[in-house]
Amino acid sequence: MNSIINISTGQLLLALVFILIAQISSFIYHLGLNRDIAVGTLRTFSQLFLMGYVLTYILKTTNPWLVLSVFMVMVVSAMFIIKGRVKEKQIPYIIPTFLTMLVSYMATALFVSGLVIGITPWWEPRYFIPAGGMVIGNSMSALAVSLERLFKDMRQQKELVEMKLCLGADYREASLDIFKNAVTAGMIPSINAMMGVGPCIYSRYDVRSDSCRN
Asked: Predicted confidence band at 2 (pLDDT cuts at 50, 70, 90)?
């Protein structure tokens, strides 16, 4: 069936049951996450509400610069989210991290839309924006975990790093183990998610849209 299922406001609000459970758990176990959960919930609803209207216009545009501008806003937003999760205040990591995110996200989104999906033009908003959004969303947690782990271990193992430097190691050699542990910590959630991806089970294959329908 190609019919659209309309979700009422009441049905949507049922999702708040899980938010309430998280809030209660945080309160009972003194996790200190109540404010973050509340802010995250409000931001989720407001962003989805606004993006619903914005995407209606963006997905119909034929202006590549507008599409790229939206993509840039998405990357900047992701950077601010990561900055809020990483507690480091002394090391100026923001600009290098942002440039790395921008280049890698753009390359991945181009690869997916232009080569994997094979869309012409490559910036077709119906495909480029969702592809970019998935890339950004899946990597934010990994980046935040990796950066937090890197800075934490560098401080905890400061004396070990300094000893290696005194013995003639350069900064890469002195921090190699810490760097590898940080990258590993960031990749574990993504690897676990990949392990749990099941086969796409569908009842009908739409040849016209090349999509898998449940």
From this structure: low
Q: Is residue 35 part of a domain?
A: yes
For the full predicted model, state whether its pTM sits above 0.90. Answer: no
Same domain, 159 and 54: no
pLDDT of residue 214: 43
| 3-state SS, residue 102 | helix
Considering the chain, what is the average pLDDT of its residues? 82
As a residue count, the chain comes to 214
What b-and-e string marks burial along 186-214, b requiring 16 or more CB atoms within 10 Å of the CB?
Answer: beeeeeeeeeeeeeeeeeeeeeeeeeeee
What CA–CA distance (Å, rounded) separates 126 from 89?
38
User: What are the E-state strand segments in the chain?
Assistant: 204-206, 211-213
The pLDDT score that the predictor gives to residue 140 is 86
81 and 176 in a single domain? The answer is yes
Give exposure, 127-157, as e/b (b: 16+ Cβ within 10 Å).
bbbebbbebbeebbbbbbbbbbbbbebbeeb
Among candidate residues 90, 54, 59, 97, the one with its CA nearest the CA of residue 75 = 97
E strand segments, 29-179: none
Q: Which domain holds residue 149?
A: 63-194
Q: Between these two residues, 209 and 197, which has the higher pLDDT value?
A: 197
Read off the pLDDT of each residue in 169-190 and give the average, rounded to a whole number. 88
Q: Are residues 67 and 100 in the same domain?
A: yes
Residue 92, token pair as written in the block:
């100026």
202 part of a folded domain: no
